[in-house]
# Entry
Amino acid sequence: MQYLVRGRFLDNPSASPKDIVPLWDKIIHPSHKLLMKWVKDKKITGGCLAGQREVVFILEATSNEQVGDILSDLPVWGLIKWDVLPIQSFKSADDRDRKFIDKLRAAP
# Structure
C-alpha cells in the first residue's frame, strides 16, 4: 500500500540558537540520512518543501502498523507532527466509480 506522509516540525519557542547545532548533529542529520537511504531503497519518494521545515513523501508499507513502525525509526519522529493518508489506486477508484455509475444508469 502507498501512503502520503507529511511531517511538520513542532515549534519550540524555548529553543535557543545554541540548541540548534546538537539538534542537527544528533537528530536532524541522522534523520536526513535515513530518509535518503529510504529513497535509495525505493521505500519512499519525496523530499523537503522548499524553504520550509516540512517533509512530504509517498511511503510504501504493508500495513498501517508498519507505517507507524517506519516513521518511529526516524530520530526526529517525536519533534514532528505527522499526517498520514492511505492512497487508493486510480484503478480501484475507477472500479468504485464505475459501479456507482452503473447503479445510476440502471435506476428508473
Remarks:
- The two ends are 38 Å apart (CA to CA).
- The first helix runs from residue 17 to 40.
- Helices lie at 17-40, 64-72, 90-106.
